[in-house]
Design a protein that fits this description.
This protein is 23% helix and 30% strand. It has 290 residues and is an alpha+beta fold. It has one domain. The chain has a 5-stranded mixed sheet with strand order 5-13-10-6-7, with helices on both faces. A hairpin with a 5-residue loop joins strand 1 and strand 2. The chain is globular, with a radius of gyration of 24 Å. 23% of the residues are buried.
Length: 290
């Protein structure tokens, strides 16, 4: 642990600029899921009904059927860390070391990784709609690609309500700068517009284990073979984003049997997946491979 002791300077904290999670609004209602046979599984309902048949004036209605089955999926995210700060280190840094460590962890590590994992998992789901990989030269090309995406989802009968547009700041700012009737109408067709830093927007990532050589710092990186994402359109009801367990514990030095240190423990165990009959609710546009 590297903690630099304070001198007689004004104790202003030099924080890293980072956004909070941009995918938190995708977290769904846990009431839609139930425990599976195994403790690392959950089940969710999938329903279908038969269509209309001819009505007969003698025998009446044709007999329809309702098919409701419970699909099983496994939790796919289990990550955590433990941070400790010696009591004297904390005191000699004006109580900033531990007092702000938790906030720094959430903002600069937990939120970006949650976003990156969500996008990469959805991008890697079989059956979602995908545009031909492309690198847009300007906002006009991006607008054209958005219209193509909207047409595809409209033709696939994906409801317009709850469609969320995620795009890089460069692309989203560019289309906003066009300020044309067409660009405003396209943007207004989305319930929510979110800017996603490119550093969180990949088709595939590697989660670093925090133990192996070269991975000691933990966190994530773009996977080999992964590409940058231009934009994604996500129909929220198509997503299963569920946190089964979040542990965020603070342990005082008096309760630490190993050292005279404060301890922060954080663990997140959950799931990101797509309902198997709603893959049309995800549209991906990735950059052309370099």
């Amino acid at each position: 642990m590297a903690i630099q002791l304070a001198k007689n300077f004004t104790p202003l904290l030099d924080e890293v600029y980072k956004l909070a999670s941009v995918t938190s609004d995708l977290t769904g209602d846990p009431a839609i899921v139930k425990a599976g046979v195994n403790v690392n599984e959950i089940c969710y309902p999938q329903i279908s009904v038969t269509g209309l048949g001819d009505y007969d004036r003698n025998s009446g209605y044709t007999q329809g059927n309702v098919d409701l089955v419970w699909k099983t999926t496994q939790f796919n995210y289990d990550r955590g860390t433990r941070i400790s700060v010696d009591v004297m280190d904390d005191e000699e840094t004006f109580n900033l070391s531990f007092g702000r460590a938790g906030a720094e962890l959430m903002r600069t590590k937990v939120a970006p990784e949650a976003d990156a994992f969500t996008f990469a998992t959805l991008a890697g789901t079989d059956g979602i709609s995908k545009a031909e990989p492309a690198t847009f030269a300007d906002a006009a090309e991006f607008l054209k690609a958005l219209l193509e995406a909207k047409n595809k989802m409209d033709e696939d009968e994906v409801p317009e309500d709850n469609r969320i547009l995620y795009a890089t700041p460069t692309l989203l700012n560019g289309i906003m700068a066009l300020d044309t009737t067409k660009s405003r109408e396209v943007l207004n067709s989305f319930s929510v517009k979110k800017k996603v830093p490119q550093s969180r927007f990949y088709t595939a990532i590697d989660l670093l284990d925090g133990k192996s050589g070269g991975e000691e710092a933990g966190h994530y990186k773009k996977a080999e073979g992964g590409t940058d994402i231009n934009f994604m359109i996500i129909h929220k009801p198509a997503i299963i984003k569920y946190d089964k367990h979040i542990a965020n514990d603070l342990i005082a030095p008096a309760n630490n049997p190993d050292s005279d240190s404060y301890i922060l423990k954080y663990r997140k165990y959950g799931l990101v997946d797509v309902f198997k009959n709603k893959v049309a609710g995800i549209y991906l546009s990735a950059k052309a491979a370099e």
